[in-house]
Amino acid sequence: MTAIQLTAPLHGWAAALDDVPDAVFAGRMLGDGAAIDPLGTTLHAPCDGKVLTLHVGGHAITLRGDGGVELLMHIGIDTVQLGGSGFTARVAVGDTVTRGQPLIDFDLDALVQAAPSLMTPIIVTNGDRFRITDRSGGRVVAVGDALLTLEPLDATAAAPDASGERVVKGVRVPLAHGIHARPAARIGEVARGFTATSWLAKDGAEAKTSGAVGLLGLGIRFGDTIRVSASGPDAAQAVDALVALIEGGMGEGVAHAPAAPIAAPPPVQPVELAEGQLAGTLAAPGFAIGTARWLRVADIAVPVDGQGAGVEAARLDSALAAVRDRLASQDGSGAGAAIRAAHIAFLDDPELREAADRDVGAGRDAGHAWRQATRAQATTLRSLGDARLAERADDLLDLERQVLRELTGVADDAMTFAPGTILLADDLLPSQVMALDPACVAGLLVERGGPTSHVAILAATMGLPALVAVGAPLTHVEDGTTLILDADSGVIHVAPDEVTLTQARGGIERRAAERAAALAQAAEHCVTTDGVRIEAFANLGSLDDAVAAMANGAEGSGLLRTEFLFLERDTAPDVAEQAALYGDIARTLEGRPLIVRLLDVGGDKPASYLPIAPEENPALGLRGIRVALAMPDILEAQLRAILSVQPVGQCRIMVPMVASVEEITAVRAVVDRLRGEMGITERVEVGIMVETPAAAVTSATLAAHADFLSIGTNDLTQYALAMDRGNPAVAGGVDGLHPAVLQLIAHTTDGAKRHKRWVGVCGGLASDRLAIPLLVGLGITELSASPRFVPELKALVRRLDTAACHTLAIRALAASSPREVRALAREFLQELSA
Predict the structure, then answer these.
(1) Rounded CA separation 100/119 (Å)
(2) What is the pLDDT of residue 252?
(3) Is 762 a catalytic residue?
(4) How far apart are CA 63 and CA 216, in angstroms?
(5) Which residue has the higher pLDDT, 23 or 433?
(6) Which of 47, 526, 651, 762 is an active site residue?
(7) For residue 602, what is the DSSP state?
């Protein structure tokens, strides 16, 4: 049979499936093909053929064309959730169509606002019968331009034996949008894990699970009762697995009533800014003046087809080993070391390697296989609805690039910039930030990204002011533009006038002088002008942080994050390992208080060895103290390690994510039992983190059982405002100085006073200059900030009068917005400096 030519069904940018931001399509779970980012508004037939299926939502259609080729065309990503809004079908199932004939019209403007991507995959779903010999990509195509050339294959492979008695079970479909492209792909993937042949059936029609087009043709919707059947050696297991998959919802959203069409959301209202200003989300504090320079990095080109499975497997082995050796040989301290350890853990992930090996075994190039594996996993992480897990996807893409460099010999990206550069990027990889010279790069501006990413951690460690989630407006800033980066205020001044520049330069000089003076007095106690003692502590995540805290005059640690000991490894650390590290940090603090937060994993910080099932909303699921109480061996080992640190009592215990009295009393019971077993007579303080609105509202009740309360303002703000600070669509509204958050802080201090408990802040507000007078005014007596900020924190507190701060706080509680609160605080500090 002669070659089959498929033409472009859309006017737009032709790309590879790798570029589709969905793991099902990019991972070729439905088959191979191409994608188009549309510029036009009509989908056309890419060949002569017959319409097999047309999704009820109008966003997807399948055809059978010349030579029996079966095609799926899916307009946009996650457009099934629009319920048909924006789509108008011009054909019906069973129609015969000719090449170029219009199939579906769509409202491009409405879909741009409503869908995460309009990238449209064109998939050959029966790829076992065809090989793609030529494909067009990386250019604009018009309707009718050549897109894919297919070569028919001989069907020589023996089909599985489908004879024999079938195992059959019925199942009611709970998926809100029925079985569309993504669920069909997952059903096929599970089915391929069994030797049995399996089918789904509805209303007398039946389709094999191996054929996505056939499954789509059944038109299975929410609430339908379908039949799952299989025949073969492991038929019963196959049916059970498929039924469990469908009943579990496949992450597609389980509905309890028919899903109503979703209208396109209104555009997000922008944050009010003066002309020439942009807003971003604080990732690392600071202030800088510099020149904009864009970091633009092109994908490393790799061929699709390889030189044979044996050759490509060996090449991949060599590249992975080289990257692992390089990471392991670099400096073993600081934030960079922790990030490199995380990258090594990803390199050793068996599922990632198995995914790459499957593509290599299918004849793909090692680089192509590695890219497919990492991007599919990255897409999965980004689809889980949790910003911090999405940020781990950046680490996978970083590893993709490092391994591809080894495979192709492409040189590292040049990361040298002129002094005074403010670096702009659509996104940044951790390895790129680690390669920067802070003497030349004055700050970072990132279009995407999140405030808890490894990039944010590195920027703070390096002292680089950084804003992330700036959004699309950043793309309009050109190379060479003068910028003022005020990360503390979350504002960028683009091409400022000379008056604004002069004021900014004066501000930088003043800040440098104030920083030097604060550092010179860092060892002195932190006391307000009216004699109120405020403890200035530091947040720690490693032994290196403790050294930095001491160098900056910290009076103790208000938060030791212990997760760094538990994550990126295959087993939990034992008592001895934990005790050794806690002891080293305690000794470094030379007897100063060390508040150790119990393990806070789950949700945004998963550990592979802890049996936490996938959750629809990880941020509200099994995390914090809920994990420890569900896994008592983990909790007891950590408490034994903390209690073993000498002198007893230097380490205080802090319980994360508390929402009820039962959680704090359960931990205290274990502490008291272990004290008895270990012969410890001294009392050890057990406090709580106030991160949930429930803990703030019931603080008086909780304070009766806790020795202290410490407010984690980052999570408290997100939970109080129902806004994710890693989401660019809402990041501009996420502010710990929102009056609602201040009300919760005030409620916490009032409740604690009834039992004479002290209240601290260990979240991001403790490192925010504008927040400090307000926190002091609300009754906070301990502030735990980043080690580098401690000298400035102490210097500021020494200039405060608590009565004046209390008056300011009362005004802030009555404010109508965080913008008004910040204006009040800014005016207060200006008068203080006058």
Answers:
(1) 20
(2) 56
(3) yes
(4) 11
(5) 433
(6) 762
(7) B
Q: CA-CA-CA-CA torsion for 271, 274, 277, 280, nearest 10 degrees?
A: -20
Burial class for 285, CB neighbours closer than 10 Å (0-12, 13-18, 19+): buried
Q: Say which amino acid occupies 302.
A: V
Residue 128 in this model has a pLDDT that exceeds 90: no
Q: Is 136 helix (H, G, I), strand (E, B) or coil?
A: coil
The structure tokens listed for 633 are 């061996």
Question: Does residue 717 register a pLDDT over 90?
Answer: no
Q: Using CA atoms of 621, 622, 623, 624 in order, give the dihedral in degrees to the nearest 10.
A: 120
For 426, half-sphere exposure in the C-beta direction (CA atoms, 13 angstrom radius) is: 6
Pairing of β 120-124 and β 70-74: antiparallel
- Quote the CA–CA distance of 50 and 92 in Å, as a whole number: 10
Residues 6 or more apart whose CB falls under 8 angstroms from that of 650 comprise 586, 589, 591, 592, 593, 594
Query: Which residues, including other chains, have CB under 8 Å from residue 656's CB and lie 6 or more apart?
Result: 597, 598, 600, 624, 625, 689, 691, 712
Length of the chain: 834
Give the DSSP letter string of 353-384: HHHHHHHHHTTB-HHHHHHHHHHHHHHHHHTT
Contact 198, 139 (CB under 8 A): no
**Distance from C-alpha of 489 to C-alpha of 282, rounded to nearest angstrom:** 8
* pLDDT per position as a tens digit, 298-309: 678 888 888 998
Residue 454 annotated to the active site: yes
The partner residues of 44 in beta bridges, in order of sequence, read 102
Which residues lie across from 228 on neighbouring strands? Answer: 169, 200
pTM: 0.55
Rounded CA gap, 440 and 509, in Å?
A: 18
Q: Which of 454, 493, 705, 738 is catalytic?
A: 454
Let me know the angle formed at the C-alpha of 59 by 383 and 723, rounded to the nearest 5 degrees. 35
